[in-house]
Each structure stands twice: as structure tokens, then as C-alpha cells.
Amino acid sequence: MLRTTKVLMLVTDLGFVAYFTIVGLGLIPPEWAFAGYADPVMADWNWSFLWIDLLAGATGLTSLRLLMSGRGERLMLVSLVLTMASGLMAISFWTLRGDFSLAWWIPNLYLMLFPVPAIIGLTGLCQGRSPHSGRTPSLS
């Protein structure tokens, strides 16, 4: 599971940077944009994700580097939780608006769901250990 999680994290974390670069340069074609994309309030909502997404990406990429030397699992957990929160926030918003565009739901469901198995593994929830034991379970 850890190998798959690492690959998904790398793709996702680089994707966060790529997405905001593309948005910042105005390269999203209107037909691919979410509903209300040109509305300044919606643009602000989209940009409000910049900091959580970049923090998820930075902690994720750093944790992947640290994992090469046997450290980084706690930072990996932070990154995965931030990624999951980002996806959950977007899905919650689209649900409240009643907007069900698969083009935006699929990537955000991915952000919300791919971290779940690794979060469970890193916290030891499936092994019956308390996440407060002071020990970070290993996924290896």
C-alpha cells in the first residue's frame, strides 16, 4: 500500500502546483471551467484553496523525500489529511450548490478518498492500537 500511496501523493502534490499555475495563467478553457468560473466570488472561492493545497503539496513532497531515509510518516499523515480536507471542502461546496459536474466531482472525490487507506494505516486504526500511544505505525 505504501508504494501506491507514494505514487498517488507525488502525482497529486505536483498536480496541486500545476493546477494553480494553470489557473493563475488563465489557461483553463471556459468549457472545462466549473459553473460560475468567471464570477469574482467563485474565483475567490477557488483561490481560497491555494494555501491548503500548496501546504498539502509541500508537506507531501517533503515527506516523500524524508521517507527515503526512514522518516517522514508523521508528515505524510499531515499531508494526507490536508489533501482529504481539500477534497471534502470542494465536494461539500458543490453539494450545497447542487452542482454535479463529473469534471469537478471526480478529481475532488479522488482528493477526498485516496488518502483514507493510508490515514487508517498510519494511525493504526485497523490494528486496534490507540493513535495516542506515541508510536507511529509503519505502513511498510
Architecture overview:
By secondary structure, the chain is mainly alpha-helical. It is 67% helix and 0% strand. The chain has helices at residues 2-24, 40-47, 50-67, 73-97, 102-113, 116-123. Helix 3 (50-67) runs antiparallel to helix 4 and helix 4 (73-97) packs across helix 6. The longest helix has 25 residues, at 73-97. The radius of gyration is 16 Å and the shape is globular. The termini are close together.
Distance between the first and last residues' Cα: 8 Å
Helix-strand topology string = HHHHHH
Looking at the chains present, what oligomeric state does this protein adopt? single chain
Structural class: mainly alpha
What is the average of the pLDDT values?
A: 89
Write the layout of secondary structure elements.
Layout: H1 2-24, H2 40-47, H3 50-67, H4 73-97, H5 102-113, H6 116-123
TL;DR of this structure?
With 140 residues, this protein is mainly alpha-helical. It has helices spanning 2-24, 40-47, 50-67, 73-97, 102-113, 116-123. It is built from six helices and no strands.
Looking at this protein, list some descriptive labels.
about 140 residues; mainly alpha; 6 helices; about 65% helix; about 0% strand; globular
